[in-house]
């Protein structure tokens, strides 16, 4: 409540040519402007950048802005195989889940909550249990944005490896802040300094060197400095001002789903806004139903679950896919209708994905260029994901492409690595509207069909000049469609 009369504010607005009719709510920016002039602090009246993003993604509504409360951060651990992701998750689970909490032992529902002591107070955070960028990329390709912060583990005795780079590319494409954990510092042959240098040269300048990437040196095996890592993560979370409105019906994302022989479909949700309650009617992709029971990550039966908190649910009629969104609706009829609509949309999507709608291929790019349709901002830039046989080829192909004239169209290398084309490359291509080029590598047939379903084009080359010719022609709008 302000010590300023309504009349005064109205008068002030009139003087600015704004005439609220007494019923109409002032929009948030107007409120901010008035508060500024009266030197009043604004509390949650104006969406932050993150809240705006959440509104755009349909997670928050404008109406939520007046009822926002802090929510715990949701974290994902990524990194190269054997660098210690599972060890770190296990250590955190064992050491940070209070034994006093009923059950005490986590149940493997796909995510779990831990309490981190910050300034003597316990603060909750949530870890997604399936480490790795494949899961992260697959969820993102389905449009889900669940992770707030990515912890990327790099073994101090091995350094940055291909999957480290993939993980970094995925986190960057998602706009998720990165914290680096240099792991295995207890090991003979550990060389954290070298990892720092490698980070610097991949464009992730450590804070200690004046950059903006927090780096913590840990031993996941011994638990050394893991508290520092968690504190660092919580600090980043605090800067993010993660909020949701617990006082509304729930919506969120599927983390894991399976079929239990007696319980039927068993689904883990992360609630992203609102509170999910027993008896709620949920629709989730093509699945729907009434929530018969809720379980927390310790296997305890609960009545409700709020923002960021993972919860296992039974009562739906079908098994959805990780990354599907769910929402609570008013009645089973509405739920059924929405589920049917979704099934239909999915069918259409499959058809249009096959037709390549909305996705970039080299030839669609070429026809857009030749039709002079470059006004669409995306088309000024051709995003490239490149897989090659050996490390040396990366620079060779890149340099050969970079000398192409880029007056109309610029080339952007989103991700380059050695190895076969993988489904995770395809997922990255989907979310970043990129094409996938392979040089002297294969794409397994499973990956080809995955790409086909997503409408992503993989072009494989054996001769570098062919690759360069195709890209040049596409940039000049001359490439003939393949078929
Ligand atoms: P992931 O593939 O990334 O999940 O890696 P894991 O967690 O399975 O770890 C791979 C191997 O590294 C295991 O044998 C772990 O015991 C070992 N390891 C993980 N963290 C550490 C550490 O901090 N120090 C040492 N010495 N070994 C570790």
TrEMBL record:
It comes from the Eukaryota. Residues 70-243 form the Tr-type G domain. Belongs to the TRAFAC class translation factor GTPase superfamily. Classic translation factor GTPase family. IF-2 subfamily. One of the essential components for the initiation of protein synthesis. Protects formylmethionyl-tRNA from spontaneous hydrolysis and promotes its binding to the 30S ribosomal subunits. Also involved in the hydrolysis of GTP during the formation of the 70S ribosomal complex. This is Translation initiation factor IF-2, chloroplastic. The lineage of its organism: Eukaryota, Viridiplantae, Streptophyta, Embryophyta, Tracheophyta.
């Amino acid at each position: 409540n302000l010590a300023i009369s309504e009349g005064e504010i109205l008068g002030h607005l009139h003087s600015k040519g704004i005439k609220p009719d007494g019923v109409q709510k002032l929009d948030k920016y107007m409120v901010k402007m008035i508060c500024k002039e009266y030197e009043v602090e604004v509390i949650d009246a104006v969406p932050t950048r993150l809240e705006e993003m959440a509104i755009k993604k349909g997670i928050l509504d404008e109406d939520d802005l007046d009822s926002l409360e802090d929510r715990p951060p949701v974290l994902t651990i990524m990194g190269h195989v054997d660098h210690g992701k599972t060890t770190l998750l296990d250590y955190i689970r064992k050491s940070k889940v209070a034994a006093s909490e009923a059950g005490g032992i986590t149940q493997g529902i796909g995510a779990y909550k831990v309490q981190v002591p910050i300034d003597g107070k316990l603060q909750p955070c949530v870890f997604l249990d399936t480490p790795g960028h494949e899961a992260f990329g697959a969820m993102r390709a389905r449009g889900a944005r669940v992770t707030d912060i990515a912890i990327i583990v790099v073994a101090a005795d091995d350094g940055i490896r291909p999957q480290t780079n993939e993980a970094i590319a995925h986190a960057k494409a998602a706009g998720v802040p990165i914290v680096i954990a240099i792991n295995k510092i207890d090991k003979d042959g550990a060389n954290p300094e070298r990892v720092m240098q490698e980070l610097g040269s991949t464009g992730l300048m450590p804070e200690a060197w004046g950059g903006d990437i927090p780096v913590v040196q840990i031993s996941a095996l011994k638990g050394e400095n893991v508290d520092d890592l968690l504190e660092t993560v919580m600090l980043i979370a605090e800067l993010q001002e993660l909020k949701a409105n617990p006082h509304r019906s729930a919506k969120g994302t599927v983390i894991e789903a399976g079929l239990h022989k007696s319980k039927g479909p068993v689904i883990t949700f992360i609630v992203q806004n609102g509170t999910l309650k027993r008896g709620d009617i949920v629709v989730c992709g093509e699945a729907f139903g009434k929530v018969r029971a809720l379980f927390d990550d310790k296997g305890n039966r609960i009545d409700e679950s709020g923002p960021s908190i993972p919860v296992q649910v039974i009562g739906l009629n079908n098994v959805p896919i990780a990354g599907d969104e769910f929402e609570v609706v008013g009645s089973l009829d509405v739920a059924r209708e929405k589920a049917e609509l979704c099934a239909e949309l999915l069918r259409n999507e499959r058809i249009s994905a096959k037709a390549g709608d909305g996705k970039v291929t080299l030839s669609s790019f070429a026809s857009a260029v030749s039709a002079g349709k470059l006004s669409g901002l995306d088309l000024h830039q051709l995003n490239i994901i490149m897989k090659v046989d050996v490390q040396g080829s990366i620079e060779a192909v890149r340099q050969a492409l970079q000398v192409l004239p880029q007056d109309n169209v610029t080339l952007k290398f989103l991700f380059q690595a050695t190895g076969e084309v993988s489904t995770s490359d395809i997922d990255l291509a989907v979310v970043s509207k990129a094409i996938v080029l392979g040089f002297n590598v294969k794409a397994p047939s499973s990956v080809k069909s995955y790409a086909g379903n997503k409408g992503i084009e993989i072009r494989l080359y054996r001769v570098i000049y062919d690759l360069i010719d195709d890209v040049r022609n596409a940039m000049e709008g001359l490439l003939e469609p393949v078929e």
